[in-house]
């Protein structure tokens, strides 16, 4: 006997039974659940995204610094909070990650912070799409060193500000190491190659120069230094402006004459993670020379033992890369007024003085006293004398050129015989 | 014939049943339409445009001619080969390795006490986020911190005691080989489940007949695991085609040194999110290429499943028959 028969309605017969169908009730229940759950979710999202209602002023900042670099930056934020009464939150996020997440957030009418540090190419691109608040009137060239805002100026408007920057001056060495082995910084290319040869035969030295690695920028920095020294500021500027091809004979010859022979001679280490592993191996003498930005002074235990020299020789009009950290206020900033006050503060000599005192930074603002710099940074500033200050090439172009530039230089370091294909691929990415 | 049968054939109730079914079917259908079919259609349309201009297959042509996709110098000069070849290499190397490692582990663990605990550890690779696996792999093969170069150095192979991240050949093959452990958990678990479905009678009959373990494996176990193998192969192919996280975690958005570890999904990501301004049309074209490849693979699986690709355990039946005959 079937179950339907057992529970069948009297007189309906075995085949006539139809179970009750509470369809309407079920639909009403489903709709009710959907409505309630959506209302609850909507309210939760709405209230979670509301700014604090305490009335306290707050500004949110996203920047790339972590560890020691963050520790050196936070005193500046503290100073801002003290002088303005506006509290802050600072979040560390890599610029490579922001590059992918910000466009989506902008398209959704949101921003993760009120003020964000990003490369100039990104700021200008998204300013053109209407996602960046103009800072014209908030900051201006008059409070900066000449040309500091050029990279974030477009259509007669200022879309971002320049914070402090870092110079990529040349090869760092330990003064005590050089003294112990009777070495001196070179002043000619010949002396440079002799120095490399001498370093190679010192016990404990694996390679004379450590190649920093990571996503790839340390190799691009050193390559730019070769270009700015032996091709001059004009070649660097032309490559940045894309008016000179990477496959041009002059560029090819520069690589083939200076960089490639040192790679083939084993003067460079394999690329090694640039920060702690790289700095430690440099500091303990495994690799006595390190091409790095001026921030290295904040990463070693005794900055006073650091010496630095630029590539020797070179053409008459040499350049030196000065990479400023740029910031902008997104269109969808929750606290645009406070963000603009912070932008003005970052542009001031007061803020940048506090930052450069921490070491490793060079001011872009006018009026920062030379006495504010640690002695090693003052020496770095001295290397700028007589040279054209250049923006970071790959940061300025940005986009897929940058990732291609980095990965192709990694390939060149791995196999210097592939110079032609490396230059062709870089050119194709411009 | 009873009333329910008449009801099913009656037009009025058919309509009612249709309405009932539609009530339950429509929400899912609408969601699929909005969240799956509409984006797919939009992506396909997008791939035929450049900005607002219709370019036909222009984006596809540009991508296929890009050395990042197919590097003509790679055939003679070694890696980088290009994203298309790299995806293929992942399939050719990673698929058989993870498949057979999983099969061997499943068979070995079949009669081991505490096998479930061991399988749980093996399966950890599957539940670990792929981006984490990528970062771990990067550390593992990177000198001087990684143990892989240190291991080869310690056994007297200086040519492999190098920074695997920094060289095109070692980077690509290091990531492929290194990621086998993560996917092996999947094949081990699926094969283990498949092994439990094979009647023990087959094995017992074969042993009574004096069949060696090798013969039992090749004549019974392997043929009866064919449907399971089909699932593993298909799922692995899909995974290897949409590979992204491991490469990004271990290298960078450029696919590492010279783009040696670059894959199609990473190429799509660069077009969409790294390029300034974003090249959405090219990203859409790569997405469509991936969709085509994955559809072909998935279509193959569904066809085999829908047509009932039942195993043909002739050897097992023969063994069982001969056993019965001998009784």
Q: What is the gist of this entry?
A:
The complex is a heterodimer of chains A (430) and B (327). Chain A is α/β, with parallel strands linked by helices.
Description:
- The complex is a heterodimer of chains A (430) and B (327).
- The N and C termini of chain A lie far apart (81 Å).
- Chain A is α/β, with parallel strands linked by helices.
- Mean pLDDT of chain A is 89; it is low at 1-13.
- In chain A, the strands form 3 sheets. In chain A, strands 1, 2, 3, 6, 12 and 13 form a 6-stranded mixed beta sheet that branches.
- In chain A, a hairpin with a 2-residue loop joins β4 (153-154) and β5 (157-158).
- Chain A is globular, with a radius of gyration of 29 Å.
- Chain A has 16 helices and 13 strands.
- The longest helix of chain B is centred in the first third of the chain and has 37 residues, at 11-47.
- Chain B has 2 domains: 3-47, no CATH class; 62-326, MetI-like (MetI-like fold).
- A two-stranded antiparallel ribbon of chain B has the order 1-2.
- The model of chain B is unreliable at 1-9 and 323-327 (pLDDT under 50).
- In chain B, β1 (49-50) and β2 (53-54) form a beta hairpin.
- The interface between A and B is large, with 43 and 41 residues.
């Amino acid at each position: 006997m079937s179950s339907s028969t057992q529970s069948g309605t009297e007189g309906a017969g075995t085949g006539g039974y139809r179970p009750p169908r509470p369809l309407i009730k079920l639909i009403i229940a489903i709709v009710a659940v959907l409505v309630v759950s959506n209302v609850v979710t909507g309210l939760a999202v709405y209230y979670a995204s509301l700014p604090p209602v305490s009335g306290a002023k707050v500004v949110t900042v996203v920047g790339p610094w972590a560890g020691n670099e963050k520790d050196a930056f936070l005193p500046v934020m503290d100073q801002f909070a003290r002088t303005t009464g506006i509290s802050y939150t600072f979040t560390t996020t890599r610029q490579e990650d922001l590059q992918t997440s910000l466009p989506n957030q902008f398209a959704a009418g949101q921003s993760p912070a009120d003020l964000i540090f990003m490369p100039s190419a990104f700021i200008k691109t998204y300013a053109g799409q209407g996602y960046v608040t103009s800072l014209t009137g908030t900051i201006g060239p008059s409070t900066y060193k000449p040309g500091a805002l050029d990279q974030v100026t477009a259509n007669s408007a200022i879309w971002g500000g320049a914070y402090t920057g870092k110079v990529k001056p040349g090869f760092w060495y330990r003064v005590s190491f050089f003294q112990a082995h009777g070495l001196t910084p070179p002043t000619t290319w010949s002396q440079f190659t002799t120095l490399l040869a001498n370093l190679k035969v010192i016990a404990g030295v694996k390679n004379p120069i450590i190649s920093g690695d990571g996503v790839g920028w340390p190799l691009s920095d050193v390559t730019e230094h070769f270009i700015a020294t032996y091709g001059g500021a004009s070649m660097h500027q032309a490559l940045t402006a894309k008016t000179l091809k990477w496959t041009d004979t002059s560029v090819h010859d520069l690589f083939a004459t200076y960089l490639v022979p040192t790679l083939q001679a084993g003067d460079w280490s394999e690329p090694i993670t640039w920060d702690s592993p790289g700095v430690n191996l440099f500091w303990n003498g495994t690799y006595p020379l390190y091409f790095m930005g001026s921030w290295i002074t904040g990463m070693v235990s005794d900055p006073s033992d650091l010496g630095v020299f630029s590539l020797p020789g070179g053409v008459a009009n040499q350049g030196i890369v000065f990479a400023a950290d740029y910031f902008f206020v997104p269109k969808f900033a929750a606290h645009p007024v406070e963000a603009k006050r912070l932008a003005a503060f970052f542009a001031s000599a007061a803020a940048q003085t506090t930052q450069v005192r921490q070491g490793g930074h060079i001011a872009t603002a006018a009026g920062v006293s030379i006495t504010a710099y640690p002695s090693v940074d003052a020496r770095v500033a001295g290397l700028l004398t007589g040279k054209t200050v250049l923006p970071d090439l790959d940061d300025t172009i940005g986009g897929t050129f940058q990732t291609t530039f980095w990965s192709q230089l990694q390939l060149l370091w791995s196999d210097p015989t592939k110079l032609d294909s490396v230059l062709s691929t870089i050119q194709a990415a411009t | 014939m009873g009333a329910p049968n008449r009801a099913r054939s009656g037009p009025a109730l058919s309509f009612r049943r249709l309405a009932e079914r539609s009530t339950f079917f429509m929400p899912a259908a609408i969601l699929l339409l909005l969240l799956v079919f509409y984006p797919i259609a939009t992506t396909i349309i997008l791939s035929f445009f450049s900005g607002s201009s219709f370019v036909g297959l222009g984006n596809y042509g540009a991508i296929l001619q890009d050395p990042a996709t197919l590097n003509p110098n790679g055939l003679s000069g070694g890696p980088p080969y290009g994203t298309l070849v790299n995806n293929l290499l992942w399939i050719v190397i990673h698929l058989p390795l993870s498949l057979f490692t999983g099969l061997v582990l499943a068979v070995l663990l079949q009669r081991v006490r505490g096998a479930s605990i061991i399988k749980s550890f093996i399966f950890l690779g599957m539940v670990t986020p792929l981006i984490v696996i990528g970062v771990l792999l990067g550390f593992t093969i990177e000198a001087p911190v990684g143990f892989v170069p240190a291991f080869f150095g310690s056994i007297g192979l200086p040519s492999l005691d190098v920074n695997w991240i920094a060289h095109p050949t070692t980077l690509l093959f290091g990531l492929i080989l290194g990621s086998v452990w993560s996917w092996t958990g999947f094949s081990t678990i699926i094969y283990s489940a498949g092994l439990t479905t094979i009647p023990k009678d087959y094995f017992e009959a074969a042993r009574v007949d004096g069949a060696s373990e090798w013969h039992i494996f090749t004549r019974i176990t392997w043929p009866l695991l064919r449907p399971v193998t089909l699932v593993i192969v298909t799922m692995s192919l899909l995974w290897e085609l949409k590979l992204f996280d491991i490469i990004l975690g271990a290298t960078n958005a450029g696919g590492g040194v010279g783009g040696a570890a670059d894959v199609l999904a990473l190429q799509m990501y660069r077009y969409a999110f790294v390029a300034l301004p974003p090249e959405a049309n090219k990203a859409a074209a790569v997405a469509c290429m991936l969709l085509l490849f994955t559809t072909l693979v998935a279509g193959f699986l569904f066809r085999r499943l829908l047509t009932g690709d039942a195993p043909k355990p002739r050897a097992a039946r023969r063994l069982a028959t001969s056993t019965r005959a001998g009784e």
